[in-house]
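Backbone-to-sequence.
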């Protein structure tokens, strides 16, 4: 298996971490009854960490499909290289670091880490965009 596909698999695991982290803090605030119920009731505003982890999760799920597509494209087209592997690893590492930074409310650094993840994504996607048609 290529590094890029391994990163995609670990990206799926990270998606689950995002989901469970967000629901864990939300359940801590609203209770187990809310978690196992229909969730139809109007809730008070979320605590800051609940909101931050929900936004971190939303941000991840906005970019993860793009990264998954980029990895699948370069793999299927046999365009993987040392640089696409490095890009995939940069993306995954940055996304791992991004979650706690967002959860703890760390400004500025979080944005730089997000930018690093975008750079990694573009490193993977670039060979497909630069390929001859």
């Amino acid at each position: 298996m290529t590094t890029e596909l391994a990163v995609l698999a670990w990206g799926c695991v990270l998606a689950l971490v995002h989901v469970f982290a967000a629901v864990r803090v939300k359940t801590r605030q609203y209770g187990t009854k809310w978690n196992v119920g229909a969730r139809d009731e109007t809730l008070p505003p979320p605590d800051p960490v609940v909101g931050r982890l929900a936004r971190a999760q939303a941000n991840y799920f906005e970019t993860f499909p793009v990264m998954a597509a980029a990895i699948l494209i370069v793999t299927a087209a046999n365009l993987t290289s040392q640089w696409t592997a490095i890009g995939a690893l940069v993306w995954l590492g940055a996304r791992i670091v991004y979650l706690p930074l967002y959860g703890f409310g760390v400004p500025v650094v979080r944005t730089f880490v997000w930018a690093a993840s975008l750079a990694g994504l573009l490193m993977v996607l670039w060979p497909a965009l630069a390929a001859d048609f």
